[in-house]
Protein 1
Amino acid sequence: MPTEIPSLHAAFDNKFKIGAAVHTKLLHAEGEFITKHYNSITAENQMKFEELQPEEGRYTFEAADEIVDFAVGKGIGVRGHTLVWHNQTPEWVFQNASGAPASRELLLSRLKEHIDTVVGRYKGQIYAWDVVNEAIEDKSDLVMRDTPWLQLLGEDYLLQAFQMAHEADAEALLFYNDYNETDPIKREKIYNLVRSLLEKGAPVHGIGMQGHWNIHGPSIEEIRLAIERYASLNVQLHITELDLSVFQFEDRRTDLTAPTAEMAELQERRFEEIFQLFREYESSITSVTFWGAADNYTWLDHFPVRGRKNWPFVFDQHLQPKESFWRIIKG
Ligand code: GLA
């Protein structure tokens, strides 16, 4: 007799939410699987600026509405992703009518309009928003990432965005979200940024650690130090985009049709250790979202090597639990 498969999120019910990044096609194909195992969902792309407002004043809410309606109907929470980012944001946002760079005034009014419309539409239905995504530079000699937001508005854009989001939905938890968040140098930059926003009175309620990690790194100790540093600001922590690639970033091999035994074993051990760590910090960590639902679909199939399969989750390509699943639910 096949073993009864327990619900993933139920194993963490009194600790933190367990989420998956989804798109509408995935909800059609795997709605039941997602509902069983996840109690939070995030739109992988369908709530990004270019998807919601491709042209000024023309909003396309069909897909986002479908995701929110699905979640509300099933009693699943929604994490909103994302309001201010340098990618997947249309060029018109940063230009005036003649194609020259928008003035500060124009850009701020567009930002406010977008946030009011989007956050306002889902008020009470989205429990947390990634208000600003990836504003910090990776290169160690620079702090802020050089983006049109920074060029046209200065550093103040973050404070403005958080205030606007809070005005649009005072109940939603507002997050600053970033990757390479365990790197000691970037970690301090993120810490300082959020600390200074809090000192200015910005309504920042949490830090999103994306968690695009792999089976070799970052070390558990580096993850622990980042969690402790961010939690010392007395904000909530969400793991927002967790996946454990079976390849190191530099590894461009394309010959595998399945993970090697060594990869699988390392991944199991890492998932176990990482979730043990999350449990240790359950008073700060309130949500853990995988950047996908199962190994049949992951953005890593196209990054950093286009068309190379990856297997970064705890469910396999047939939506069946991997050994990692059994290890993390054990607790
Ligand atoms: C970043 C973004 C996500 C997504 C991933 C890649 O982490 O925050 O929205 O685009 O890159 O899929």
Protein 2
Amino acid sequence: MADDAYDTRKTHFTSDIGPELDGEVVVLAGWVESIRKLGGIKFIILRDKEGRSQITVPKSNPKIFDEVDNLGKEYVIWLRGTVRKIEKAPQGAEIIPDEIKIVNTAISPLPLDPSGKVDANLDTQLDNRVLDLRRPEKTAIFVIRHETVNAIREFLISKRFIEINTPKIIAASSEGGADLFPISYYEKEAFLSQSAQLYKEQMSSVFEKVFEIAPCFRAEVSRTVRHLSELYAVDVEAAFNNYEDVMKLLEALICHVFKHIKEKCSEELKSLNHKLSIPKTPFPRYTYTDIIKNLQKEEVKINWGEDITTQAYRKLGESLKGTYFIFDWPTAGKPFYILPHKDNPQICESFDLMYGWLELASGGTRIYKKDMLTERLKEQKLNPESFTFHLKTFDWGMPPHAGWGLGLDRLVMSLTGSENIRECVLYPRDRDRLTP
Ligand code: AMO
């Protein structure tokens, strides 16, 4: 068995192996998942990005038969062999190798058992993320995440949206609040972007319909299963639209994504043991005021105008299982850019999209008149001078517009049935976690 392997090109992935290749010589490479010895036969389960293949080494090939003993779990190997049709093998075929090279070794014991037979808590999993992700139910989450982003792009582009990229180093808060991460930017102070809000609004005055899929940074003080310091948001903004229009767009997008995942990721959903039901449109819609009244009936007391607490959301999630909107929120609790209702400025044209207890998205109609926006900034104790770069674009022909921000990580949580948002992010960042 050669231990150098400068040429590790392969001809197939494991998923290509099947009885129809009977008699063909193939070259595979990947990781040793397990080694089993059964009398005069040794079996290697080889794993690659697509799945697993059975490599069968009979005693009649004594050189390779002995060499199998040099292999360990998670070693990277390269092999050439002949496919043999065999009904009993999981793929209906196995590979009889005539050469195996060790490309790289792995330590033993590993800090985490990638076969999942030995349980590890979430912190250990995240500390050893690379190994953790070699488990099929972990890989599944990220295949679903990949397909989710695919489906979102496909949908929005079909609706004539254009994808943009806005800066993540910014000079002023876009959402208000204290959750900004300051950074040192040459001689000045700057911040990591909390959202694409101001820039996507500006771009609605150029491209009319824009979207962005990008990270947002929030210095969240709380430690919860749904908050990250670095999250991915799908941001949408559409000129000449109001909140009704973009709520319809959002529910159509959600249905498209759920359908896409159900169709494309049945294997992944199976390995996660998660059943996905596709929501029906229109999603139920409740005003903020109705929700508060209903919560009061459940003895969860929230005064009108106050935010809905986590405990209250959990209560709501007990009766409202799927997707629903909460709309017409109190103006005071929503960001400065949301348009107050014409006949009742105490409430604004805003909404949150919920999935049970979890908020997936929020959005609304925006203020598009400069005077009103300046007033709202002052009311929210923000300094309009810090927003000059933004406010001046409202002097150049700003159309009415509306949009939303959808938390991608939370959407993936819903699609995969994950209980902690950290499971849906390769390398989560939170109050306590900055590595790996
Ligand atoms: P908002 O602040 O509600 O709205 O954020 C939009 C969505 O992003 C997700 N989200 C988070 N996910 C994980 N960790 C966090 N710390 C976190 N914070 C938010 C949620 C949330 O619904 N500019 C507006 C959107 C708009 O009006 O267009 C905004 O950022 O799923």
Protein 3
Amino acid sequence: MGLLSVIVPCYNEEENIVDFYNEVLKNEAYFKGHDVDFEFIYVNDGSKDKTVEMVKELAAKDKRVHLINFSRNFGKEPAMYAGLEKSKGDYVAIMDCDLQDPPALLPQMYEAIVNEGYDSVATRRVDRKGEPPIRSFFARMFYKLINKVSKTEIVDGARDYRLMTRQFVDAILSMKEYNRFSKGIFGWVGFKNKWIEFENIERMKGETKWSFWKLFVYALDGIVAFSTVPLAFASLIGVLFCLLAFFFIIFTIIRKSLYGDPTSGWPSLVCIILLVSGVQLFCIGIVGQYLSKTYLEVKKRPLYIVKEEI
Ligand code: UDP
Ligand code: MG
């Protein structure tokens, strides 16, 4: 008998735990027919509501339900990693608790792996219906930018919802970096990947856990994790400014010797100093981003700390 592990990162999702479970189990008959059993791994990412109690109640009724309870909120990335580490399935799915990742797609995804020979089946939403326009705009810009600066393909609208083979999961687990950006990691490991598209579904209950600021920081993490182009960009600006300065020196010397023009125009000087120092700080900031990530990486802190496991 095969096993399908469903990993569910949860942060304050008390209202969704049971609905999610029921919705996934609507596929039970299909998977039973294919000799595949379910295993649920709920990862409680330091929720402040009754998420843990709800999962414990489910686990008491159904032996297939497991809980990993973090000691605090570590973020969705560590939660997914913890779930992947714990999963025993031949097939592993990562799904959001809020039912934005339609469980009805699971049979279709399973078939793509078993019959068509894919190693992973990923999902992407084709629209961003129901999202604030500003957020969509910045999200689109981010995907354009990161695909320009990174060799790893990062697909616009891609969700973390995907079904993977054991081999694919082991490849993900072998990437033990501290600054995790799954959308890049999934692409980086390679393998044969199929995309399934669906229209955006709004969150069932509760509200999004991602503020604009949190998303912005996550986007920066993604760029730093999957590209070193910003560093090269800093050097390039440096070279350009040196060249510019060189021409100005020549220009000033010639003007002085031909016209004896005393150096005038301190306003332009102020502008130049401000511009150049601004660019310098910007570039130091870029270097600082990479340095800070390296700093966190070399500390080798655990990705998460588990308080209890069921
Ligand atoms: N999540 C988490 N830790 C966090 C933030 C979110 O485990 O710090 C979980 C959350 O419970 C949900 C999934 O990640 O199952 C996606 O979060 P959300 O639906 O808030 O994001 P959105 O769909 O708005 O991008
Ligand atoms: Mg959601």
Protein 4
Amino acid sequence: MNRTNPIGIFDSGIGGLTVVKELEQILPNENLVYFGDTARVPYGSKSNEAVIEYSKQDAKFLLNKNVKMIVVACNTASSVALNDLRKSFDIPIVGMIEPGVKAAINKTKNGKIGVIGTHATINNKAYSKELLKQNKKLKVFEKACPLFVPLAEEGMIDHPATKLIAEEYLSELKKKKVDTLILGCTHYPILSKVIQEVMGNDVVLIDSGKAASSIVENYLQGRGLRNESHQIGKREYYVSDLPQKFKTIANTFLGKPINDLRKIDLEDLF
Ligand code: DGL
């Protein structure tokens, strides 16, 4: 494997750009290829079978771009499909769950950890299983917060409706006195301000994408695969559909405008 090959990142849509943002911070010189399956988003309300099938197609698309490793930026795909992906493809694959779990375990003091995510992520208990595998004594409380996805995409970041919904979703976790909360969905870092307000400043929020970026860095470093170029890496973005408002939403998620965006045909994935 060549160290100048790109890192491949995929997500169900554009939410994974929050993970690209973190990767860019920590590994600016790496070349990145991003695929967002915008034609088939959301994955969070789909069956496991569908998410596994789509994730394999997404990974195959990236492999054809000669990536040196794959980051599954989508928490839903990480929860449901990571094992299948690792069995199917002979390439390092980093998901969101293990990094998020490690970061949460490092931070918790009272051993009470909350996890929020899509229905699929929460129903599959990927985070709680991994947390309890690492430490049986932890108390884990999970809650699906599906409305956070459209709220983030609508840019309703400081909106009173978002605050109300956050209070409704998070009240149970607050009552359980979690001291650490895993943001187990690509979109939730966008809403971290309101989530922090509702949970209180004593609760540590864990951004799985940020945690995963450090794991990617360590992995590349450890295997001598880090791109040592002194230039900012190339970025290529691919999507399976170009929804209206794409550019505005992408801007919010990535923190800057997207260049080099290409739409592919969904058939190219099969
Ligand atoms: N990217 C998904 C996740 O992180 C959220 C959007 C979806 O449901 O596809 O779980």
